[in-house]
TrEMBL record:
Residue span(s) of domain GHMP kinase C-terminal: 287-367
Domain Galactose-1-phosphate uridyl transferase N-terminal: 416-626
Localization, UniProt: Cytoplasm
Residues noted as binding Mg(2+) in the record, renumbered to the chain: 132, 164
One Pfam family here: GalKase_gal_bdg
Active site: 176 (proton acceptor)
Site keyed Transition state stabilizer: positions: 29
Name the record gives this protein: Multifunctional fusion protein
Pathway recorded for this protein: Carbohydrate metabolism; galactose metabolism
Catalytic activity: alpha-D-galactose 1-phosphate + UDP-alpha-D-glucose = alpha-D-glucose 1-phosphate + UDP-alpha-D-galactose; alpha-D-galactose + ATP = alpha-D-galactose 1-phosphate + ADP + H(+)
UniProt keyword Ligase, yes or no: no
Gene: galT
Keywords, comma-separated and alphabetical: ATP-binding, Carbohydrate metabolism, Cytoplasm, Galactose metabolism, Kinase, Magnesium, Metal-binding, Nucleotide-binding, Nucleotidyltransferase, Transferase
Chain residues that bind substrate: 35-38, 226
Length: 637
């Protein structure tokens, strides 16, 4: 891939007489199942892929935009002004760039200067692998980087869809842009297009791989019957709404549709709507089949999807039918279907990896014999890897951004942030550690969250965001881990809900959270030396504390009686919850306390940062009575 950027950088210098400053990448996508459901309020099940669109670019000082594609050399350099953006009637690829610019400007983002951009894609054009959406998201991240736009990933996704709908003239749904914007390694996205709620589902196919089969028949969505199909579904929906209280076809199950299909009064419209409803239900079932590892059922649902697209939606054509139906008959193929809008483009097949060559040969021969020209095949061993996610490539595409890796690890915990929050979360991390020297080393994405955090702390020192001393390092480490810990009210709510199940469930949850957030210093505790020795009273467990020097109990007691003007009053009081820390005073950003009532008194429960489970829990008094529990209180406990 580095060769791609070197090639584009050379072309950039040849065309524009300056060096490109930034590199970019945006993947394509396949849709496993859920075709033509996105604009019908249903579910889709796409995945970003390793093929995509590469770009190098720089900002200009004037208002001109200069574009060049190594895929469309015959179009030469496309030039336009930000002050005069008009759709090119010849339909060149620059229209997608214009559409995204206008969509972002409509949302209030300022594009003050022009730019120069050279791109190349390895997605076949008009193949059904979303080359246009890949380009749209690429343009989004180009503008985000060059002009420091404070966008979210969802805003870029919606800008891509708006460019497609409002400027290009294709009434597509949001699936393609969403899959590209939110794709994750080895996962498919189960997306509810009605609410934009989604679930990342492991795309685990066992001994099988995805084979992309390209008809090599070009199709343009605006020239196809795509918009007609959408209009037909909208008409069918209106007829159903005369009786049913629904906003989209995606709200119906198969039984309800069948019982009310006579409201439509048009056999063609019935078929269109039936596909939308049945395909949505197939997608829901397919998601669960993949989770359950039932690949035979998943494959059959893929086959059923193609049949519906052929017979009810009528968007396949002889080319796609030849590929899919021939593949379905081959040994080692679990399922095959067209993917994308149809009317040409590509089909996919789920194939035993040991049978790929035989399948390609059989399908290729049948296609050549019937169609008269060759199909082409691309093997996807995985749906995506981290090197192929949509991104701004600051130095080397083979390296990941440390802040982004840390954000991913926070999101994976599913406690505070979701995938939609990644851009926001990453920017929050940038504000703490700086944006320079963010590139990770190979393998950093496999490190645990604590190792990545420590690397970010070192980055902050290099960027002079913090002093190179123990206090500043601990404070920043605590602040970073705080991203993974819910608010106190949430922690308490979960604790008491689990307490109703059993006290063990509740305390196990709180202890696990305290360790996971690195509030309990498990790695430091591991340095301690522990052993047992036999005594007349049983085994005595002895720990030599090497993790943290203990304070004199007399000094602790004296501190409790002493009036203090500092804040917090001591290292044990409730005021420490979420406290940032200061020189000589530990950070408690990720600290949480459970509120409880003991004998009519309000107390707080926590673990010690340097403790073992059930050995060093602490009860805190809100009136600042450290290390003191009344006898009657202790008895009731």
């Amino acid at each position: 891939m580095t060769d791609v950027y070197e090639k584009l950088a050379t072309i950039f210098t040849e065309k524009f007489a300056v060096k490109a400053e930034h590199r970019f990448f945006s993947p394509g996508r396949i849709n496993l199942i859920g075709e033509h459901t996105d604009y019908n309020g249903g579910h889709v099940f796409p995945a970003a892929i390793t093929l995509g669109t590469y770009g190098v670019g720089s900002k200009r000082n004037d208002r001109k935009v200069l574009l060049y594609s190594d895929n469309f050399t015959d179009q030469g350099v496309i030039e336009f002004s930000l002050d005069d953006i008009k759709k090119d009637p010849d339909g060149n690829w620059g229209n997608y760039v214009k559409g995204v610019i206008l969509a972002l400007k409509k949302e209030g983002f300022d594009i003050p200067n022009g730019f120069e951009l050279v791109i190349e894609g390895n997605l076949p054009n008009a193949s059904g692998l979303s080359s246009s959406s890949s380009l749209e998201l690429l343009i989004g991240v180009v503008l985000e980087r060059l002009f420091d736009l404070k966008t979210t990933r969802l805003q870029l996704v919606k800008a891509g869809q708006a460019a497609e709908n409002d400027f290009i003239g294709v009434n597509s749904g949001i699936m393609d842009q969403f899959a590209i914007g939110f794709g994750k390694k080895d996962h498919a996205i189960f997306l509810d297009t009605n609410t934009l709620e989604y679930e990342l589902v492991p795309a685990e196919f066992g001994n099988n791989v995805i084979l992309i089969m390209n008809t090599n028949k070009r199709r343009e969505l605006t020239d196809s019957k795509y918009n007609q199909r959408r209009s037909e579904c909208e008409t069918a929906l209106k007829k159903l709404q005369t009786k049913l209280d629904i906003k989209s076809l995606g709200e119906l199950d198969n039984k309800t549709f069948d019982e009310n299909a006579d409201l439509i009064h048009d056999p063609t419209l019935v078929k269109r709507a039936r596909h939308a409803v049945y395909e949505n239900q197939r997608t829901i079932i397919a998601k669960q089949a993949l989770i359950d590892g039932d690949l035979e059922k998943f494959g059959q649902l893929i086959n059923d999807s193609h049949k519906s697209l052929k017979e009810d939606y009528e968007v396949t054509g002889v080319e796609l039918d030849t590929l899919a139906q021939t593949a379905q008959k081959q040994a080692g193929v679990l399922g095959a279907r067209m993917t994308g809008a149809g009317f040409g483009g590509c089909a996919i097949a789920l194939v035993d990896k040991d049978k790929v060559d035989q399948v390609k040969a059989a399908v290729g021969k049948a296609y050549l014999d019937k169609i008269g020209y060759e199909a082409s095949f691309t093997l996807l061993k995985s749906v995506m890897d981290p090197k192929h996610s949509i991104k701004i490539v600051l130095e080397d595409l083979m390296q990941e951004d440390l802040a982004g890796i840390f954000a991913d690890k926070v999101i994976e915990k599913k406690r505070t942030y979701q995938a939609l929050d990644k851009i926001y979360l990453t920017n929050q991390i940038y504000s703490l550690v700086g944006e320079k020297n963010q590139q990770a080393k190979d393998g950093d994405e496999k490190q645990d969250i604590y190792a990545v955090r420590d690397e970010l702390v070192r980055t902050a020192v290099k960027n002079q965001k913090i002093n190179d001393d123990l206090t500043d390092r601990e404070i920043l480490a605590s602040r970073l881990m705080n991203f993974s810990v819910p608010r106190p009210s949430v922690v308490n709510d979960i604790f008491w809900k689990k307490y109703k199940e059993s006290p063990n469930e509740a305390t196990n949850y709180f202890f696990s959270l305290s360790k996971d957030s690195d509030y309990i210093k498990t790695r430091a505790i591991a340095k301690n030396i522990a052993f047992k020795t036999a005594t007349d009273y049983g085994d005595l467990e002895i720990t030599i504390n090497l993790s943290k020097p203990e304070k004199d109990p007399k000094a602790i007691a004296a501190a409790g009686k002493k009036t203090s003007t500092s804040y917090p009053l001591c290292q044990l009081c409730m005021e420490n919850e979420g406290y940032l820390g200061r020189l000589g005073y530990p950070a408690r950003s990720e600290h949480r306390i459970i509120r409880l009532e003991l004998n009519g008194e309000q107390w707080g429960f926590q673990y010690s940062p340097y403790a073992y489970f059930n050995e060093h829990a602490i009860f805190l008094s809100p009136v600042h009575r450290p290390m003191h529990i009344d006898r009657i209180t202790f008895k009731i406990c």
